[in-house]
Write a structure and sequence with these properties.
Length: 595
């Protein structure tokens, strides 16, 4: 039986006490959405995650998916859990009411998605990708496409995928070769191979809707010649019933390090019937609707793996006995003291906690801007929200997944040799966490997006907007313990930005060399901002009444500022070291080493 417990109180703390979602919803005119409703949804989601999904996490990892003559079979229990998920109405939470959804904001969906991902990441990816397919069709599809596909996706009868990557092209989609031939009746025939397709084939739902990038005949070269298509596994009839089987199949299952319970497929499109979404040769712009949502969803996995590490390691260290405290015996009636008496164990536990709870606050802060974009009637507020999203999304995806992986590794380390053994679940968490820094754009890709496109590309406007928001909120918080430290780190980040801008004017490699350190520096600052917000609330609550929950919050905030935020100094030093040593070897030197 799984030991996973949904972190309900911490989610409520972040949403209700720190970020004040009630005021947020009222400001958007969502008067029926409030803490009482969200707490009720959260508690039901916690029950589903703990009772239905968590017990399948290890068994799904051990069994994995099977490719049969009839397609891919998910691990035992996955289909039954998915049926209960649909019966509970979970797929429709944030879907538009006009197509059968409940019309709740995306921030409610993310709250639920966090729990389901923690309970069973592999399972959660099956319905998780459907939201992106649904959003893409809703944003760019025709009225007929919306009416045909959205109701089935919203009820969960159909699921969706995102098909970008091919054997010869990963992040660089200019090499994309999949072709789409017009048929003269408004349909197309798509031919090509896509790889690394999460949930590409399975037996959970009756149909799968693939969102596929492909090239039309005579399309311009490069990314400007890519179009976007709907390719269903079964072609639907006009009434939504299933028609003929389409020429799209799983050719193989990838053999992976982790997320074994999710089908990562090689998908073969052999003249599959397809339908254009959006304008010809504008497919990549349309697909960004899917990709940006997926980046935020992957960032949330940084919470997932840190939270799982926290729960496992904290519990183990509170029960396991090993050695004696350096300050003297703490348990004289026992042969050894608990692991928690050792400073290094506490360092690891607090690092994990700082990341898990800091990531949670950052993710919920970020999702508020997605709500604003969807619901606000104020064009200036929407424009500001879109700019904040543009700046924070690559930071969240890159930084949160990197520290989620660090937390997973530390969680395994707390267990010592037992962490390396399957039965404790820590090694699975590490294996599952590893992919998060890779898919939806590696940390390097996110870093280049942040520094080159968002910061330099806006002439510093987006950085200045974020910095202004941080400074304004700190002034409102009126805190003299954490604020000066954070403002100093923020000022250094802004100075570094100017230095990189000047350096890359002479050598663009300076930008590429600095990018990852730049993103990580920004990530530590963003998390310090969230921890300042949480610490101020904790101080206020402790002034009213003693509570171990708030004492832990305040202690973790102080740990973060003293033991983790100083990492920004190292990143600043690495950026200032420049690109010379990185690029000193010639291409011939590197190639000769391979020989």
């Amino acid at each position: 039986m799984s030991n996973y417990k949904a972190p309900v109180r911490d989610i409520q703390f972040v949403r209700n006490e720190v970020l004040d979602f009630d005021t947020h919803y009222r400001g958007l005119g969502l008067h029926d959405v409030n803490a009482e409703l969200c707490d009720a949804i959260l508690l039901e989601a916690a029950k589903f995650a703990e009772n239905e999904l968590a017990p399948l996490n290890r068994s799904g990892d051990e069994e994995g998916c099977q490719l049969t003559a009839n397609g891919v079979q998910a691990p035992k229990g996955f289909k039954a859990a998915y049926e209960k998920y649909c019966e509970g109405g979970w797929p429709s939470l944030s879907a538009p009411e006009e197509f059968g959804g409940q019309g709740l904001p995306g921030s409610v969906d993310m709250m639920v998605g966090e729990l389901m991902g923690q309970a069973n990441q592999s399972w959660s990816m099956y319905p998780g990708l459907s939201g992106g397919a649904r959003a893409t069709i809703y944003a760019h599809g025709t009225d007929e496409q919306k009416a045909l596909y959205l109701p089935k996706l919203i009820e969960g009868a159909w699921t969706g995928t995102m098909c970008l990557t091919e054997p010869q092209c990963g992040s660089d989609l200019s090499f994309l070769r999949t072709k789409a031939e017009p048929q003269g009746d408004g349909s197309y025939r798509v031919t090509g191979t896509k790889i690394f397709i999460s949930s590409g084939d399975h037996d959970l739902a009756e149909n799968i809707v693939h969102i596929v990038l492909a090239r039309l005949p005579d399309a311009p070269a490069g990314t400007k010649g890519i179009s976007l298509f709907i390719v269903p596994k079964y072609s639907p009839n006009d009434d939504g019933s299933l028609g003929e089987r389409n020429a799209v199949n799983c050719g193989a299952l990838e053999h992976k390090m982790g997320i074994h319970g999710n089908a990562t497929c090689v998908m073969n499109f052999d003249g599959a019937k397809a339908f254009l979404i959006g304008e010809e040769n504008r497919g990549l712009a349309c697909m960004f609707t899917f990709m940006n949502g997926a980046r935020v969803g992957t960032a949330v996995q940084g919470i997932t793996h840190a939270e799982l590490a926290l729960q496992g390691a904290w519990r183990y260290a509170s029960e396991r006995e090993a050695g004696r405290a350096l300050t003297g015996i703490k348990s004289p009636d026992r042969p050894a003291d608990l692991l928690i008496v050792h400073p290094d164990v506490r360092r690891m536990l607090l690092t994990i906690r700082a990341f898990a709870e800091g990531n949670r606050a950052l993710a919920h802060f970020l999702i508020k801007y997605i709500d604003v974009s969807a619901y606000s009637k104020d064009p200036d507020l929407v424009a500001k929200g879109d700019k904040m999203l543009a700046m924070l999304t690559p930071i969240a995806k890159g930084f949160m997944t990197e520290n989620g992986l660090e937390a997973a590794n530390l969680g395994m380390q707390v267990f010592g040799g037992h962490g390396y053994i399957r039965e404790w679940g820590m090694e699975q968490n590490v294996r599952d966490a590893r992919i998060s820094t890779l898919y939806e754009g590696t940390t390097g890709i996110q870093s280049l997006d942040l520094l080159a496109r968002k910061v330099m590309g806006s002439g510093g406007e987006l950085l200045n907007l974020l910095a202004g928001e941080i400074k304004a909120s700190l002034a409102d918080l009126n805190d003299d313990e954490f604020t000066p430290v954070l403002l100093k780190a923020l000022a250094e980040w802004q100075v570094i930005t100017a230095e990189v801008g000047a350096a890359c004017a002479d050598d663009v490699n300076e930008l590429g060399s600095a990018a990852v350190d730049y993103l990580m520096m920004g990530g530590y600052i963003a998390l310090a901002w969230m921890w300042t917000k949480m610490a101020v609330v904790a101080k206020q609550k402790l002034s009213e009444k003693e509570d171990s929950f708030y004492r832990c919050k305040l202690a973790t905030a102080r740990f973060y500022f003293q033991k983790i935020l100083p990492r920004t100094l190292t990143h600043a030093a690495l950026i200032r070291a420049g690109a010379e040593s990185v690029m000193s070897l010639t291409d011939d030197d590197i190639l000769s080493y391979q020989q």
